[in-house]
Amino acid sequence: MKLALGLELYRGATLEVPVEQVRRAEELGYHSVWTAEAYGSDALSPLAYLAAVTSRIKLGTGVVQIAARTPAATAMHALTIDALAGGNRVIIGLGVSGPQIVEGWYGQPWGSPNQRLREYVAIMRKVFAREPLTNDGPEFPLPYTGPGAVGQGKPLRSILHPAGEVEIWLAAGGPKNTELCAEVCDGMLPMGWGMDGESIYGPPLEKGFAARGGRPDDFEIFGGLAVEFTDDVRATIDAKKPLTAMYVGGMGSATHNYHRAAMARRGFPEAAARIQELWLAGRKDEAVAAVPDEYIEEGALFGTEKRMRERWASGEVVPSGLTGLTVRTDSIEGLELVADLVGLRDTPAEAAS
């Protein structure tokens, strides 16, 4: 089981990168550190900063929103950061976000996200391979010849040569994007991989693997693990419900809300529907109260070290089918505990990463 450190820098009104925590994760042999973006700080700039203060840990975006940049621009970011980091260290996790952000923040049409993702990955692969950049798809026609074009576009190659391999992962939840991920990507960041994740995601994954001739031996699927030391588990669970209710109930519209769908995939469809109904009706306190305790604790370790170890040993924390866990914790002690639980601290860091 590989371990990753998940940073939630994008949620803050100010930006502060926890360098010492990242360095400790690298010392422990963590596989990667991941950043994200919404409509504030971006996911790529912090990775360039971390490239300068680390030497081995992989640098991943979980995720960059494809509406924010053309595929060629994202590929340029990836090649640049990987060159600064020494090569073979960058993972670009892609995601579509939702219509509210895509159309409201980036001013892009929602359109056909699955087709856009397919073309996005294909174009990035061409940039990395330094092939002449052409694309016949409807989402990103290259060279561009549409309205406003002067007809002088040329199929260019990247001037910068790759310092190493850049992996492309995909945040996926629904069957179409899950299948696409298995077909064209190097790894998956699933939205809603619960204890039944293998049975829910399995069929579209297998369909995608079949289209590429089989599952690659190094294909990764990373789930999440929240870790928090506390003497009051009840208060910790309650403190996390407002944000959960906001995401499930209000981070999206009545017709497009991936967080509601993710909660349903994890085995809580009735609660997800009720939370959204209450939130959209303006009954936010009731929506918060409707978040099940079990949902908050699934994929989480809260409490004393003794309680955390007991829950880990119970087998009720980590779903089967995952190849890695993205640990989200404010403490270095949390990173060290999970490293102990998976046996990472008994493995030389160079071999683990």
Describe this structure as you would to a colleague.
The protein has helices spanning 19-28, 45-53, 71-85, 99-104, 113-128, 175-184, 197-211, 233-250, 258-265, 269-280, 284-289, 293-297, 305-314, 332-341, 349-352; strands at 2-6, 32-35, 58-65, 90-95, 167-172, 187-190, 220-229, 300-303, 324-328. The chain has 353 residues and is α/β, with parallel strands linked by helices. It folds into two domains: 2-225 and 319-352, Luciferase-like domain (TIM Barrel); 231-303, no CATH class. Helix 1 links the parallel strand 1 and strand 2. Helix 5 (113-128) runs parallel beside helix 6 (175-184) and helix 8 crosses helix 10. The protein starts with a strand and ends with a helix.
